[in-house]
Amino acid sequence: MTKNAIEVNNLTKKFKDFTAVDNLYLTVKEGEIFGFLGPNGAGKSTTIRMLCTLAQPTSGSAKVAGYDLIKDSAKIRQNIGLVAEKMIMYDRLTAAENLRFFGKLYSIPKQRLEERINELFQLVDMQEWKNTQINKFSTGMKQRINVIRALLPEPKILFMDEPTLGLDPQTTFSIRDITRQINQDGVTVILTTHAMTEAEALSDRVAIIDHGKIAALDTPENLKNMISQGDANVFGTKISNLTSELVNKIKSMDVVTAVAQQDDYNLKISAQGENALNEIIDTIRDEGGNIASVTNSNESTLEDVFLAVTGKQMRDQATEKATPVHHRHGPAPKARVR
Ligand SMILES: Nc1ncnc2c1ncn2[C@@H]1O[C@H](COP(=O)(O)OP(=O)(O)OP(=O)(O)O)[C@@H](O)[C@H]1O
Ligand SMILES: [Mg+2]
């Protein structure tokens, strides 16, 4: 039987009146790569910080590596590594000097530390950069050092908060490869991201988190299947004379659970019911809309899942407060899973 690396029970974090993490329940199995996918402010980092014992939960409990979050926080710290949102690195020191410095903080014996540092430079294929000052490194190289720094004490569980944020595609791929390698070496990985492709490429299971709550949790495959199988559906329409009135009209339809406007012409519409597509097309025509194309692909993406379960598009998040996005007031979509 697989053991659980992490068990979260009813975990809540409030900042004054604001609930950043709201009654979170989940388990992460040993050996998994588990993705937290959610928009800015969803509560991803706050959850990670609590599980790493860096922030006190307001209520609830959790076990990390078998230890109680509150009672055994010191034990937890011995079993985890954290690649935080912000890199911590001394620019004037070489890469190896940085690692030695952190290795000493972990009280790793000198000889073992040197061995470990060599192993880790190999892991990220940066042996020739060992004795170069960090300030000569590109962001991607720094991030690789930042990742192996967290691996120094040989953690059982590695937390990575937005490990590829702001990196170019090539470096992103390399960090993903390294993450897979780390996982194959037996480390359970919990990562946060707001990139669908990242969650999909890396995770065995994904929790879609929004406003501190889990909206859906499953394998990327199952998450995508659930919206193409159920009577929930997401499709794209291109309307050559799209107006905000028309968008609002579509949003107000009973069968429509969410609408995301992608540009001047394209909408992604999440809807429910067998006849939803026909009803929507009729409405668009009745309102004078010129439909240039409708795509109802069987290949849904995690982006579609996110839209279906949260009623929002990932990209919208930065402007969410400025332009309120439609939320259906009726029953929750059937596709919703736990
Ligand atoms: N120390 C704090 N004091 C007050 N509010 C906070 C604090 N830390 C986080 N928050 C709020 O809690 C919410 C969740 O923040 P969190 O950093 O966990 O989000 P996130 O999902 O990691 O987002 P991002 O993608 O931007 O990193 C946000 O609305 C944030 O403003
Ligand atoms: Mg964050």
Please describe what this structure looks like.
With 338 residues, the protein is an alpha/beta fold. It has two domains: 4-218, P-loop containing nucleotide triphosphate hydrolases (Rossmann fold), CATH 3.40.50.300; 222-319, 2-Layer Sandwich (Alpha-Beta Plaits), CATH 3.30.70.100. The chain has eleven helices and 14 strands. The strands form three sheets. A six-stranded mixed beta sheet has the order 6-7-8-3-9-10, sandwiched between helices. Strands 2-1-4-5 form a four-stranded antiparallel beta sheet, covered by helices on one side. The longest helix is centred in the middle third of the chain and has 16 residues, at 169-184. It is elongated. The chain starts with a strand and ends in a 28-residue tail after the last helix. Mean pLDDT is 86; it is low at 316-338. Magnesium ion (MG) is lined by residues 44-45, 85, 161.
Draw up the topology in text.
Blueprint lengths: L3 E12 L2 E12 L3 E5 L6 H8 L7 E6 L2 E2 L4 H7 E4 L11 H11 L4 H14 L15 H13 L5 E5 L7 H16 L3 E6 L2 H7 L2 E6 L2 E6 L1 H10 L2 E8 L4 H8 L4 E6 L4 E7 L3 H11 L4 E5 L6 H9 L28
Parallel strand pairs: 3-8, 3-9, 6-7, 7-8
Antiparallel strand pairs: 1-2, 1-4, 4-5, 9-10, 11-13, 11-14, 12-13
